[in-house]
Amino acid sequence: MLIKLPRSKPLKSLSSKSTTMKQINTKRSPNCSSSSSVQSTPEIEKKYVHRVYDAIAPHFSSTRFAKWPKVSTFLHNLPSGSVVLDAGCGNGKYLGLNDECFFIGCDISAPLVQICKDKGHEVLVADAVNLPYRNGYGDAAISIAVLHHLSTEGRRRKAVEELVRVVKVGGHVLITVWAVEQEDGTLVDKWRPLSRKYLDEWIGPGSPRVRSVGSVSLESIPETEVSVGNKEVSGDEKDKQQEYFVPWHLPYHRAEVSGASVGAVENGLARKDDVKGAIVYDRYYHVFGEGELERLVSGMKNAVIVDQFYDKSNWCVILEKTS
Ligand SMILES: C[S@@+](CC[C@H](N)C(=O)[O-])C[C@H]1O[C@@H](n2cnc3c(N)ncnc32)[C@H](O)[C@@H]1O
């Protein structure tokens, strides 16, 4: 049972380039809604996000310990006694970071949630587009590197709405996403852009998946419909490219390889790379262009942007709930 805790000090800005508080534009694009369809998980996320994190959870967790200073600052500036909700908490590296706050994490990946639980954290399996908390439950919420795994604008917007919904008036929400504008541009060359055909069929506004989610299985889509490397994408298209598969290399020597990954290779979820000595999983990413995160949060009448910045190849915003 959680007790209601008072707020005692205002949040400090994280950035010298801090945005002055402004009401978020109330215009929203027509294809975005909070209807139940945005809460149905598209097959691309099931196969290339959820199943991948489930499969790589122990290895992923072993690589995730460095705390991002901007997130640490946000958490350390929260008033003592704040209830902090971490949506998409991964291995829980931010849970408990400020020992004067009470943290609750959630993630779509049950193996990652189990890893958090084993560390003694308060966690549950939940979808970021449908958070299992009542309105105004938390004092603050964070979504660190999660929204770029949602495959439609409607779902990304719904996830923002959920973060705002679950904090109380005056509460703050920190959101970070991967930027198209990567500091190390060579990284992008290691990602696999989704082909035009794939984009039109599965990501675009006319996507059958958006109209009829769940009725089509990605299992039936041959891997050849997904481009390999950048070679199927022209220079122009590459510049506009925002939909990628980002590889995760799971070394053969990891114990997991003997179990789940063997099956994953057999059923096409992963492939072997004998040169690197690893099983390669593709994770779906929608990387954000400049201004896109700000536009995404537009349309929310009950939140304002109190800070926004670019840091270490990520776009970030801090929202304050106003009513
Ligand atoms: C790049 S990791 C970031 C984890 C953590 N926030 C951190 O900063 O280390 C992305 C996380 O988002 C989770 N995730 C992806 N889609 C999700 C969804 N729809 N709902 C909740 N979690 C999701 C993944 O399982 C994974 O743990």
TrEMBL record:
<dbReference type="InterPro" id="IPR051422">
    <property type="entry name" value="AlkB_tRNA_MeTrf/Diox"/>
</dbReference>
<feature type="region of interest" description="Disordered">
    <location>
        <begin position="1"/>
        <end position="39"/>
    </location>
</feature>
<feature type="domain" description="Methyltransferase type 11">
    <location>
        <begin position="85"/>
        <end position="175"/>
    </location>
</feature>
<dbReference type="InterPro" id="IPR029063">
    <property type="entry name" value="SAM-dependent_MTases_sf"/>
</dbReference>
<feature type="compositionally biased region" description="Low complexity">
    <location>
        <begin position="29"/>
        <end position="39"/>
    </location>
</feature>
<dbReference type="GO" id="GO:0009820">
    <property type="term" value="P:alkaloid metabolic process"/>
</dbReference>
<dbReference type="GO" id="GO:0000049">
    <property type="term" value="F:tRNA binding"/>
</dbReference>
<protein>
    <recommendedName>
        <fullName>Methyltransferase type 11 domain-containing protein</fullName>
    </recommendedName>
</protein>
<dbReference type="GO" id="GO:0030488">
    <property type="term" value="P:tRNA methylation"/>
</dbReference>
<feature type="compositionally biased region" description="Polar residues">
    <location>
        <begin position="19"/>
        <end position="28"/>
    </location>
</feature>
<dbReference type="GO" id="GO:0005737">
    <property type="term" value="C:cytoplasm"/>
</dbReference>
<dbReference type="GO" id="GO:0106335">
    <property type="term" value="F:tRNA (5-carboxymethyluridine(34)-5-O)-methyltransferase activity"/>
</dbReference>
<dbReference type="InterPro" id="IPR013216">
    <property type="entry name" value="Methyltransf_11"/>
</dbReference>
<dbReference type="GO" id="GO:0008757">
    <property type="term" value="F:S-adenosylmethionine-dependent methyltransferase activity"/>
</dbReference>
<feature type="compositionally biased region" description="Basic residues">
    <location>
        <begin position="1"/>
        <end position="10"/>
    </location>
</feature>
<dbReference type="Pfam" id="PF08241">
    <property type="entry name" value="Methyltransf_11"/>
</dbReference>
<dbReference type="GO" id="GO:0005634">
    <property type="term" value="C:nucleus"/>
</dbReference>
<dbReference type="GO" id="GO:0002098">
    <property type="term" value="P:tRNA wobble uridine modification"/>
</dbReference>
<keyword id="KW-0808">Transferase</keyword>
<keyword id="KW-0489">Methyltransferase</keyword>
